[in-house]
User: Fold these one by one.
Assistant:
Number 1:
Amino acid sequence: MEFKISSRAKKVTFTLMIVGLLAMIWGIFTEQSYIHTKLSEDGTQLTLSYPTHNNGENTDEEWEQFKADLIIAAEACHIQIMEPGAHGHDNHGAGHEVHAEDAHTDSHADETHGDGHGGHGHRAEPTWSISAHVIHTKEGMEAWHHHEDEVLPAVKAMVDSHKVGMPDHQHNRFWSNLLINGFFFFGIALGALFYLALHYATESGWGAVILRVFEAVMLVLPFGAIVLIVVFLAGTLDWNHIYMWMDESKLTMGEDFDKLLYKKSGYLNQGFFWIRTLIYIGVFWIFALLFRKWSKKEDNEGGVKWHFLQYRRGALFLVFFAVFSSMLAWDWIMSIDAHWFSTLFGWYVFSGIWISAMVMILMTTLYLKSRGHLPQINQSHIHDLGKWIFAISFLWSYLWFSQFMLIWYSNIGEEVTYFQQRILDYKFLFFGTFAINFILPMVLLMSRDAKRTWSILLIISSIVFVGHWMDVYLMVMPGTIMNNYQIGMLEFGMFIMFLGIFVHFLLRNLSKAPLIKKNHPMLDESIHHDF
Amino acid sequence: MHKEASIREPLILGDKSYHDITEDVCRPIENDAPKAWYLMITIAGLVAMWGIGCILYLIGTGIGTWGLNKTVGWAWDITNFVWWVGIGHAGTLISAVLLLFRQKWRMAINRSAEAMTIFAVMMAAVFPGIHMGRIWVAYWVFPLPNQFGSLWVNFNSPLLWDVFAISTYFSVSLVFWYIGLIPDFATIRDRVTRPVAKKIYSILSFGWTGNAKAWNRFEIVSLVLAGLATPLVFSVHSIVSMDFATSIVPGWHTTIFPPYFVSGAVFSGFAMVLTLLLIMRKAMHLENYIHVKHVEYMNIVIIVTGSIVGVAYITELFISWYSGVEYEAYAFINRATGPYWWAYWSMMTCNVISPQLFWFKKLRRNLAFTFVLSLVVNIGMWFERFVIIVTSIHRDYIPSSWTMFHPTWVDIGVFIGTIGIFFFLFLLFARFFPVLALNELKSILKSSGENYKEGFGYGEGYWDKQAHHDEIGDAENDNNDSND
């Protein structure tokens, strides 16, 4: 049975791509640099600073412009910004341009910025200490009546919410998003490839009628791989500073010297990194192509020869996958927080990859069935896919919890920073993601009926899908743009666009081969699958 | 009806009928035990008595009779505990996880694997019990309201989590095992003639009638228990691993521990299942039910779990270097090259390298080789726990207190003794309990029995046609056939 992409599907995927692209472009042009805000303990003084080693490309003029913008924006809210030096009730020294080291007294700030990327030489960190009071006009008095102590926090919020800021020339947020989406969608294809190999190696029979869907998903592998390579290449060319260990100045004696990175440079160095990256991608792609080739051969030639070949090669693939899946997680994701380490990290990332892939496979299967294709797939198959999603979300949650709990419990400085940062800056997202990815499928997919009801499956797995995108987001963002994060047009647009492209390729792959394998020896068993 | 692909190997060999299955499983229970059984249970009993003697001596004299010292405060005791708990993992994995995965081959091995699990967990529980020193206050591990002032359990301690995890695991495994036994006990009840035996099996079978409703309930309960037991398979050994991993001791504190311990537990459990079943199938003439294919499947589980453990070893080793933490790196260098190098390399050889031989189909289908390798894995997994526990602490932060651990005869005696008790219990099980889930086995006879698959000499698919005749009549059947 052949599958043709309907014009409606084409329209949908292209709309996703175009809407996503537009939103993304909008997002890129409104990116802002990170400005650190800190309210003094008595609440009378706000310190704004601009960590140059994080995003060191804004000029002094832009900094002055930012100050002027903030004063104007504040005035619009009937707030007058004062520089305490001028006012006199401040003993912070003569000037208000304080050096970064003096301004950053809270340990949290040290922690996030200590990992700072970039390294465009050490420039003094511009710092601006201000206080503010209400402008004594009628409107101002009315607007802030009894709320005078909230004036300074309001100014802080203007900066934190990016209402006032400086344009980001370095596009950290853009590159981070590219990494997130590249990895997420690469992971989906890789997860499908893994599941295909697992299906063969375990001599599973039930899923023989869905194997073509697995194949179609896994063959989108190059898309994510190319995006990842672009991100890494940009890092190598110094266009982005996602990987701080790529910065040579940290490895040579000098101001920027980082002893830990120097110790790790036997592994974390560009040459070896590129060799590993290309080997992972190359091996995965070769296996994907071979599985597809043998699968088509089986269609044309019949016999059990190709089946048993895939059984043996499936097992071989799992060996490679067992090693590479952990290593690529260290290389591509864990090395963003290059000082940090966790032995479980690779398995944790793998479980996320797997569940995202299963969601994609389930969605594709439901789509095909809703279009009247694949009559051989019955409710039992759908039920089984639902069970996988249920089971792997447990696996993911188990690994998430194991990693988190052990590090939290032991509370060793060099390890706990990772979660400290996520809890301090990303608290809602961090725990929210865990809740969504664990509790939602556990509660709502537990019953047999739920796993046989398409609408429930569709809703839960869509939410879990986004939840696992958020999981990747939380692996990347805190290490690349610290607490300067937003979920705005850029994030939304790029995700939508990537989804559109992924689905587009996925449908094309589906249309290139019959939707059911013809001569799979367990086809009959699979068609009669019923429990 | 379910169809089974013809490329699948049959799971029940020979020309067996439902009645043959009943006969084959009940024969050892109904006949007199062979001399070998008496011989084995005598040996096991003597070893068990020796072990109990050692335990009594230990309780009477004190923990000082063990070889523990100020630096190595945990050694064989906890090693044996973790080893036994690990072995106790295969049973529930086979009965619960493989049930959820619809693995029919589990039916030949689940009963004895579950029995093994229960006995192994009992042996595991011995060690923390006697380690308390004052075993008569062992109930203090439970959060019981008490009159002793501030005496209360510490909920922050993973050792307490162990109490809950293992007691839950033990209860659920026991219930699971027993529920499965009920219909089989009823079968024996209906067959035995000796009045005392009849009375006992009658009590054990809870008045099982075998009607359709009872079977329906039976299957529902099995599925629910499987669902409950599956998280337990993970939780027990995860929590055991947290005894170490929540600490800040280099070599103990590593996040990969929970899943890696679970994998290691399944690995050692399957090795013990193989050790026991390879003897049992011969001794009790069950070669048609537990045959080469079953052994091959178990050996594949051994390769997979062994390799996962191997990946974890390498990951730990690598990250200890990558972390840049000197103490972490030293803990691992010391493991591999320090005074306990022989333990480390025994572990590596037994657990990671030797199971790779099962990649060769000839070897994983060779029963004698499998038996030897299963013993090797059992030994290797004991060494793994020893390596993790002793080598991580015998050289601590002050070189002046560096020391070695030397087991005393009590250490050795208690360990050997638990092996004796374990085998004693298992031999009793093999003598008086149905060692195969005979009623469950019958459910796969027609789909996976050799003769049914091969069509009684009439060729493949013959039985399917016959079955259709029985069920839906000729006209419809012809229709179906043409569609097929």
Number 2:
Amino acid sequence: MSRTMSEPSSVMDVLVELNPDASPTEISESIVDWLESYLPSIARSIEVPTISPIESKLRALLLKRRKKASRVREEKYWSEREKLVEDLRQLQIRSEDFVAHSSSFNGHPAPAHGDFDSFMFERPSFEEHDFSPGKLTYQIEAISKPDEVEVKPKKVPDTVPPIKKEDLRHRIPRITMDKNIRARIVADPLFSHTLRFIETGLRGMSEPDVQELDFILRTDIEIPTWKAVVLKVHPVSGDFDQKTRLWDRVDDVVRQCIREMMNLNLYVNKLEAIKEINRNLFIEMDLT
Amino acid sequence: MTNRDPAFSAIRQDIEAVKEAFSKDDFDNMNIFSNRIMSNAFLAGNRKLALPGFFMKEVALQFGNLKRARKPTALSTAKAQGESFLKQLDALTMKPDFDEQQLWQYFKEYYNNIRKFLMNDMEQKVYAENPEFVSLTTRHLLEYLRDNKEVLTDRENLFLRGLINELSRIQRVHGADFWDLYAYSLITALERLYDYILRLSLKVDGSLDDSKIRKTIFGFADKIIELLLSQEKEKVTVSAVDELLFELIYQWRMYFIYYMEKMPILERKGIELSEETREALGVSIAKGLEKKVRRK
């Protein structure tokens, strides 16, 4: 069977043929260089499916009725798939940001040192290369379908379509904090740590229905010493029932973040204080 | 220089621009405005004013990385810490003769708060403060630089970047005291200058004339090592650190005026991929990824 140029091994063969004197290292380095610069465009061309939380919950309930071996296999597959979907979505969002902020990006590698009056950062964390193709490849290899089903490949566009900004706008909600919250973050390390856990969890939701999340510090006129942290959720749209379900989901995420924090050894002596923060944290939904 | 000095008021405006960029999450421009503070400080003849620019650049780079992080990060919570530091820095530098020691103090406090946001999930769970280990490893890394300076004459080396990588990794997970931050800052400034010197030292045939590296970079490396290793770390003064730091920043900014970004670059002797190959690889990867995430 003849191979097409779209197969990586065939591409390698062609490269070897065209560059007979090149060592395997030189060939692989040139591919890696190119991949690093081109990955944002690739990411933007991929059609990433959305994961419905309701569908996930239903699937989890159905899986409980399966035999253990089959259940474990299926759970592993779905968990890895959801992680890959999430990673790809994050990559798309960051690719969009990368293009928006880069004055020189046009498929060529960015200059190594944009340390000057340019728009590139010089030091994008040496330990973690965000667009590393290696990491992505590892994830792809790690995922194997439990039941290999041949799926008819969907046509991939020849040209890379630009991602629409409006598609991305609501994938990560805008998070704001009023000045009293910001002051408390600086003054109270435990509060800062707690909010860090909560914010990370909220940003990881990739909840398309949330437009904005506002953290507000509220006091009671009659009891000035009582201070409550209110997380106000502004949904994109939806009817009352949808908003109520969203309210529950945000609440679940927030409380789960706090529970996870309390399970860490680091905070074993501060459980009461964390519980106090949790008790005084209220989630409100903008139902208008 | 007085508060009414035109140069001082220009630098104050640069600081305002940095704050504005930070508030808008525009960390790329924040980086640029920070560089501008350092350049203006030297052009105006007040080296000391480069220091806020140096620290603001660090903040811009840290937040730029947070914003671009692979996994979701608590950017808004972290920004409260960054904002607090910028306010302190802003208030302190209202006068040209600000207290440098105080500025380092603010930076140290800021760094030890923000580093927790720079750690990943696993690091947050397991690492605790360990000042003795940080000092010990910083000392070893400085000794490593002292004993292996020759590596800096290898055209492919990334020695200073490697040192910065180790220093920042250790400080990020275990915390940093003044002396550790002095080492990190000086090596960082040295690396920025070295980047220019290395490129200038490359000859047309690809070989390296290492005389500039030996004269300039080895000289600065020796001064850094002498300052930080020849006395007890508590005895190292801010004024001595700043004097060396200002000289490194000055040279780096002057090289920027000479050469900006149009310099001979170290190009890897590689293979050029044809348009067809590039397109084929892109389509292949996109297809593979789509197949993996498609519903069953």
Number 3:
Amino acid sequence: MPEAQSDAREDPDAELLPAVAAGDARACSTLVDRHAGRVHGLASRLLGDAAEADDVSQEVFLAAWKHAGRWRPGGSARFSTWLTRVTLNACRDRLRSRRPTAPVEVLELLPGDAGPERRTLDAERVMRVRAAVAELPPRQREALVLCHYQGLRQDEAAAAMELSVDALESLLARARRALRLRLGGETA
Amino acid sequence: MSPAMTRERLQALTAAYGADPARWPASERDAALRLLDASPDAEALLREAQALDMQLALPEPAAPTPALRAALLRSAPGARVVGWREAWSWRFALPALALSLTLGIGMGLAVAPVAQADDGDEDVLTLAQLDDDYTEFTEP
């Protein structure tokens, strides 16, 4: 994966990590501000539970603090890719012990300026989409969340999932096909 | 060098990544867009993928709260250094606490015989017993 390797050499976190390991408060703060949103967003989307996403974020950053001093710049992946992989693993551990059935407070997430009927329709659609995504096989769901919802590039998502880009593409195509069938006649 | 783009490859791209060219692999994006410009037929693929993209749209998850950010930073290596400083300061605080305790007990022992000799205080202590129903306050 030559593109991923060249990105690893240009890893924007590479220079930050020695300072993080040395306990530089500003460096730690920068690392959190750069990555906490993505880590938390990924965990929220995979687990469907904001409180669990908080817990996962704390686990992931504990791992980050622990490994910052041992990070080798110019390795095979960027630090952000490693963080994504750790987040995926933490979410997999939690999902193994339960299925994501907890309903999320959808209405709170929708724009407040929409009328009540529109908000109810949107909330129903969002719940149907969330349910359909949650029912996907785990690898398809991860691929879809990483690429479609989190906006990761193919090489980043494939590296985080420890797959080839071709395998990732296949997972994505199957996920979208399954979702099209499930959500078939519904309007957006 | 960008590979030749075919309708089949464009179909595979939209099937996997959807209609937004920003999601397609950078190495194939330009060729795919050129094919779309040249072939109105290929645009049908895009419309189909677009419809599913719209169906899949979800609100953004909530951003990390300030409380979570603070918790993440409390566990950071820098915060551990502060923790050690705090622990170091306890090394001075603990002997001071022990000295205060010793002085307090010593003074208490010295004063206790005087207090026991004061019989008037026994009434005060009796009134404070927990097994007292305090009927004088609860019954008419």
Number 4:
Amino acid sequence: MDERRLIHLEKLAGLQLESDERRRLLVDLAQMATLVARLPAGGGPLMVDPVIGSQRPAPQLDSPDNDFAGDLFLARAPHHDAGFFVVPAVRPENETKEEDR
Amino acid sequence: MTSWRYLTMHAARDLADRGELDLDAIDRAIRSAISGENPALGSYTQCLSAGAKPQAVPGSTAHALAGFGVAIKANIAGTGWRTDCGSRILKEYSAPYDATVVARLRRAGARFLGVTAMDEFGMGSSCEYSAWGEVHNPWHPDRTPGGSSGGSAAAVAAGLAWYALGSDTGGSVRLPAHCCGIVGLKPTWGRVSRYGLTAFASSLDTIGVLARDVKDAAQVYSAIAGPDPLDATSLPVSPGDPVAALTGLPRRRRIGVPRDFVRAAATPAVIEDLERVLAGLSADGAEIVSVDLPGLEAALATYTVISCAEAASNLARFDGTFYGARQPGSHYAAMVAETRSVGFGPEVKRRILLGTHVLADGYREQFYLRACRARQGLVTGMTALFRDIDALALPTAPTAAFALGSRLADPIAMYGSDVFTVPASLAGLPALTVPTGLDTDGLPLSVQLVGPACGEDYLLQLGAAVEERIRFRELKEAPWQRPL
């Protein structure tokens, strides 16, 4: 990342850095880029099962038709049986519905 | 005998029920101790008076937490204090409502002692990135208490709170628990309502518990967990009765250990301590198996990208319009830039800029989407792993509490503190930190137990078994063994 790119990011993020602050951040961000470079390559799925509830397809992050992160977040919410995290599918027998209110 | 200020809540309750302990008098003494000792420790940024709001609800004395004082992390909203998140930008913000966890503690009859210091917006591993100064470790004043819930952990370890609430995005409850030699519980994502928690990275944020032992942690967890109509992402599963589940050893005990991953990052003292704990579990009948989980090595990079991306989005609201201490500017954009540049500290700016970068056009596929895929790979791997094992055991951190100031110039070394805690965060799984021993400098070490989704009861039961075998609280080096 160079200084021009950082100034562009500042504008996007609603920040304005002092020049010495910017110099320090460039060093830090270069280090962070080294860390981020350890991300594995490859094209695995974004979700385990891209189906919510019945048969409605879940929004895909990389779909040009759907760029709304909120949909993705809802798709991942554990309320859905095909969401991001794996949770018990059935309510324990000794649990009442009282607490759902 | 342990001083009254360092008793566990369940032990104090037994004494109070027998008429041998006056909880009201102890509450007054703890508030007095906070006034005297907090200036040197720095764990509290706001002290609440006993008579002011919040008050316990009449008739709630039957609850196990009734009458005990709690410390609240500064990113959890409540009427009666400022929810400043350790940031200048929210220095005057007071929420007009209670977070669900606060409302539940209020109903249980908890007494609110104060608001604790934290790394700004939860971004940090040492409690040095607070706008209000650093926090010192009660075991050694030159060491970090861990972060970001370092103020909460230090208060509990120093006998200035019976227990505390913290938040854990990538290890911010577990790491301070490790550094301060106490118990830290990060529940399954969605198990404890996030309503009233200032968002850092929404898909990772959880509210967790810091307590003196596993039973106290279980009591607090059972009071705050459960479905909440105010949080659409809360799980429709009640916490059950984790305290009742603490009796005896768990029936199934097949414990997985990612030994290669641990050896690559931890110091010899940490590895030795973990092996000692595992040998104890094995002697008690547990089966210890080495496991290999692809993706663990990339978890820190994955976490960094996802958490920074979500932080850049979540913190966009602090622009001086609705939220944030407004700074003057010649026009709207100048006002926003000035407000955010003056209000946010260097670490928050760093993460916002990195998050903006990984979400920007032309970079999203390369960073953010790759991180999302890596995360999904880890979730899939973890899910498969927990079909074969009952819990995962690994250290909480690669080292004991490091020296204050030693990692400020090296953000990557600072982020490395979270290498063992971020996998459970990315997978949304529950994790429990239990103190287990001391390193050669006499600083606490711990084991982190990770369970399957909604496996808190099992983790607490296993953690209690570790605690019972090691008896860490009886170590003579601990701060709670020093004379008052």
